[in-house]
Predict the structure.
Amino acid sequence: MSRSVPASIPSERRLESPRRAGRRGLVTPTFSACLFWACGGAWPNQAPLGQPFPDVQGNSLAGEEVQVPQTFAGAPTILLVSYTRESQFDIDRWLLGLTQLETPARKVELPTARGLFTRLFGERLDESMRRGIPREDWPSVVTVYRDAETITRFLGAEGRDNARVVLLDGSGVVRWMADQGYSSAQASALDDEVRGLAPATAGSPPTVKTAAKPGPAAGPLTVSGPRIRVLGVAQDGGLPHAGCRCERCEAARHDPARASGVASLGLIAPEAGKVYLVDATPDIIDQLTQLEDVRDARPGGVDREPVDGILLTHAHIGHYLGLAHFGFEAISTKGIPVWASARMAAFLRENGPWSQLVKLDNIRLQPARPGEVIELADGIRVTPLGVPHRAEYTDTLGYTIAGPNRRVLYIPDCSPWHAWKRDVKALVEGIDVALLDATFYCTWCRPLSVTIVDGVSF
């Protein structure tokens, strides 16, 4: 759901392809345990603003020896330091948020683990990571084992599942740092800091600025033209999940930056002033709030037209329950177009309370037929496709979403790839960004798993 070592670390622009394939959950359990054990020091967190980053040696996954910060001298560099596998979720959000902002700095991941085990088996651990990371990203991932303790003492190790995001100027001085988890507000603050650095920063006094605290008042991403806003990335139950006490859900309960709504997209057509939803989830209240900045809602009242249409995928709880809020008891919309397959439309007409939405004209059902293009505003073209998935109530659709410049494939729920009757590799030909179901990750589906992103301009 990313931005060499010796001069070969790529500088990311907007999202151009599903490059960070299968990043989450790909590090082996051995490596996960190793990181958890090796970096368990309780050094207090530091804020070393204005201090030079210590000299450490690492190796990129491309096999090159890297000296940090010397290798990156002469231009701003953002280091994303991880101590545990759980940090990867945080790092992915940072990388893709900064990509969407087009932050003009190199981005380098530094998986950091200390201890005898990592020094003995570091190459085996690196090979494990290579299996889950596209080759073109290998130069931008630098593992640090021998000098790991130098980094953990310099940055601190409390809250070790959070990434340490460190901005270095061209002379290797720390200009900005965050260690409390990703938020778009912090990403914007980091982007501002990078843009405020002069091209030649060596020798200049650092501008010390405290990183913004994470919170719900994150501002919109500053991109133009038709675009997609990812409103949630979680399975039907959301994150945290009701009744679940796993480590991820417990972390999300205590840290809003780690929470996520149920998977949904907002399709934004800014010239026409229109917004469309892909799926109406149980988190629709918050997800509509995330779209308020691109709507001209009347202040002081109820917005009876919070979206200009909804494209449904299927009738599992995470994908259509939010329709209830468009009914008489809540928003009481009038004639909102809802595109659905024939079976999905029949399900809504024939079962309450959804049938009342149709009867009262809160929603107007429109056909979503596989292979037939749905024309939306600002030249956005959506093409449904049939997707193999559990069909207790209805069939399931995915969507190809095309803008003026790029094509996005969105499949929030699907069966394993071997259940497909079509060539999946042919399906993704010509797709720039693929947002795919990765709820039940497994090793044999690795080649087509991708990370969910924070936003796509297309």
Summary: Residues 1-40, 200-222, 441-455 have pLDDT under 50 and may be disordered. The longest strand covers residues 77-82. The chain is about 20% helix and 20% strand.
